[in-house]
């Protein structure tokens, strides 16, 4: 029995003409790309502005490690949450739920711990001196600058992801980028005062995360 072969439908041909195969996401490749970018930023920033001159002494101080590990922890948790949230298959999975809870707990506790350590150790008159607003504004500007490249990379991941909760993905991406920018700047900044770090670093991180929360959802596919 002969088979009746119908000519292809022009409408279908037009619909599939611009289709291209989509490569599956690989979170290891994305993490490696961001890590390489941060390493490059550290080298470039050190070449342009240098590391803090007292780095050998600073590395013996627990406050230096509190500052860098706090920023690194915020960045790591937030980036994990952001990248996992772009996969709709695990958006509601328990392993992602604990990351959201971890972020909600770690970020305020890590930043507030600086205040809890010794905010009241000196009188009110000394607080303004400890905050050093001129260096503080420089801190805000530099963390914002150093956050831009990680934020652009993460925004690209977000754009090509498939998040079912775009606001959360955007917030996590902003926290990750800000944490990475603050982590890089910590190797140049000579302020280890917990109050200073809580106010200026914390303000920069939360401000950048807030901006990402407002802007990035517009880039999401879903």
Number of domains: 1
Percent of residues in beta strands? under 5%
Work out the helicity level.
Answer: over 70%
List the uncertain runs. none
Our measurement of the CA-to-CA distance between the termini, rounded to an integer number of angstroms, reads: 47 Å
What is the overall shape?
globular
Oligomer: single chain
Number of beta-strand segments: 0
- Average residue pLDDT: 81
Tell me the major beta sheet. Answer: none
Order of helices and strands: HHHHHHHHH
Distinct helical segment count? 9
Query: Which structural class should the secondary elements be placed in?
Result: mainly alpha
Rg to the nearest angstrom? Answer: 22 Å
Descriptive overview:
With 222 residues, the chain is mostly helical. It has one domain (26-116, 134-219). The protein is built from nine helices and no strands. The protein has helices at residues 10-16, 27-49, 55-58, 62-84, 94-118, 124-131, 133-160, 166-186, 194-215. Helix 2 (27-49) runs parallel beside helix 8, helix 7 crosses helix 8 and helix 7 runs parallel beside helix 9 (194-215). The longest helix is centred in the middle third of the chain and has 28 residues, at 133-160. The termini are far apart. 33% of the residues are buried.
Quick take:
This protein is 73% helix and 0% strand.
């Amino acid at each position: 029995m002969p088979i009746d072969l119908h000519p292809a439908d022009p409408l279908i041909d037009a619909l599939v003409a611009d289709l291209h195969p989509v490569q599956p996401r690989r979170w290891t490749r994305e993490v490696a790309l961001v890590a390489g970018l941060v390493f490059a930023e550290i080298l470039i920033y050190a070449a342009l502005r240098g590391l803090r001159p007292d780095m050998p002494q600073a590395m013996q101080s627990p406050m230096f490690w509190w500052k860098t590990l706090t920023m690194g922890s915020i960045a790591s948790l937030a980036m994990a949450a952001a990248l996992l949230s772009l996969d709709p298959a695990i958006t509601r999975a328990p392993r992602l739920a604990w990351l959201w809870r971890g972020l909600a707990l770690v970020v305020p506790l890590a930043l507030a711990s600086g205040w809890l350590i010794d905010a009241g150790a000196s009188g009110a008159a000394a607080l303004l001196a400890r905050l050093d607003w001129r260096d503080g504004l420089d801190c805000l500007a530099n963390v914002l600058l150093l956050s831009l490249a990680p934020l652009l990379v993460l925004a690209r991941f977000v754009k090509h992801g498939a998040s079912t909760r775009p606001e959360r993905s955007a917030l996590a991406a902003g926290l990750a980028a800000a944490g990475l920018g603050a982590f890089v700047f910590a190797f140049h900044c000579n302020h280890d005062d917990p109050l200073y770090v809580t106010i200026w670093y914390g303000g920069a991180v939360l401000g950048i995360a807030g901006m990402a929360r407002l802007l990035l959802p517009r880039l999401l596919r879903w």
